Structure to design on (197 residues):
């Protein structure tokens, strides 16, 4: 059974297409118009081994907010769609990733309940190219709301804003990969005492 999600989201502010294959090879084709965001989505696909296609046309003449937010919403919805009923998955995943002086710790539960806990160093540089670093938390909020997962991200230290953000996406990619992979010992079983996620 293929685990593929495809979501199109169109508003007066943006037009977004997201396609994801959870059992891919990390082939990524991303174009949002926000260079650093594209770089982060590339990390998500490659380190999660998700085949990922993202095409966003947004109102970048205003700023990057709507483009970034709506892409994250569509990505979360596509991820949820690809998971299906979650039969046979591990459900939980965690990963700690360093990037030079920065460290990110990420834990996920594909629980069906959206919840985000997010901490990162204060006083980060406000911009990375055209990317507003305050949007990082909002990306995860938007993704979690649509994917309906519990996500805990903790960056205990780091100095370089690029590294701080990038190690979060890399750790998230690995944690999602581990949680969404099929457990050979749990074939046909939904990993919950409730019988549904």
């Amino acid at each position: 059974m293929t685990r593929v999600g495809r979501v199109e989201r169109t508003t007066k502010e943006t037009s977004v297409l997201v396609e994801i294959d959870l059992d891919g090879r990390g082939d990524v084709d991303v174009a949002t118009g926000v260079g650093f965001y594209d770089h982060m989505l590339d990390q998500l696909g490659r380190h999660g081994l998700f085949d990922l296609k993202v095409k966003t046309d947004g109102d970048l003449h205003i700023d990057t907010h709507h483009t970034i937010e709506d892409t994250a919403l569509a990505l979360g919805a596509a991820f949820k769609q690809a998971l299906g009923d979650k039969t046979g998955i591990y459900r939980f995943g965690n990963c700690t990733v360093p990037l030079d002086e920065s460290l990110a710790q990420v834990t996920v539960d594909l629980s069906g309940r959206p919840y985000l806990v997010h901490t990162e160093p204060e006083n980060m540089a406000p911009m990375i190219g055209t990317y507003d670093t305050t949007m990082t938390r909002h990306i995860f909020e938007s993704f979690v709301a649509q994917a309906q997962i519990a996500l805990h991200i903790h960056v205990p230290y780091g100095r370089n804003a690029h590294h701080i953000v990038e190690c979060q996406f890399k750790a998230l990619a690995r944690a999602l990969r581990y949680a969404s992979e099929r457990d050979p010992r749990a074939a046909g079983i939904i990993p919950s005492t409730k019988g549904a996620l």
